[in-house]
């Protein structure tokens, strides 16, 4: 959704109406992508599943091996969010603003992605895992 904001900023040099329409369209599509998977569910069911010892040990080994990738992904995501200020400051036009949004989008993607994987491994290493 954040990356969708870069297009209206780029189009604002040519036409404010086109920029506004592309902003609303990009935001609407992003919101629908978030909401759509949950529309069909009437009630949310969780079930706890007993994980075997060997499966838990395998998940723990994979989780331990994932620590380095998790750290790299976190560092890169945070770095991209911090570095997003540079193009906005150096380029004082719509390209700088669009670059800012793209850098933030990439940084947030990495932060969310590595934490989702880490959370999944953490859940699998418990004896009673909650599965959707």
Helix content: over 70%
The helix/strand series, from N terminus to C terminus, equals HHEHHHE
Strand content: 5-15%
What's the number of extended β-strand segments?
2
- The chain-level mean pLDDT equals 79
Q: Can you tell me the overall shape? A: elongated
Structural class label: mainly alpha
Rg value: 20 Å
Characterize the largest beta sheet: strand count, sense, and whether it forms a barrel: 2 strands, antiparallel
- Given as residue ranges, the uncertain stretches (5+ residues, pLDDT < 50) are none
Number of helices: 5
How are strands sequenced across the largest beta sheet?
Answer: 1-2
Roughly how many Å apart are the termini? Answer: 25 Å
Structure, described:
The protein is mainly α and 132 residues long. Helix content is 71%, strand content 6%. It contains 5 helices and 2 strands; from the N terminus they run H-H-E-H-H-H-E. It has helices at residues 6-11, 16-35, 53-83, 85-90, 94-124, and strands at residues 47-50, 128-131. It has a two-stranded antiparallel ribbon with strand order 1-2. Helix 3 runs antiparallel to helix 5 (94-124). The longest helix is centred in the middle third of the chain and has 31 residues, at 53-83. The protein is elongated, with a radius of gyration of 20 Å. It starts with 5 loop residues before the first helix and ends with a strand. 13% of the residues are buried. The model has no long low-confidence stretch (mean pLDDT 79).
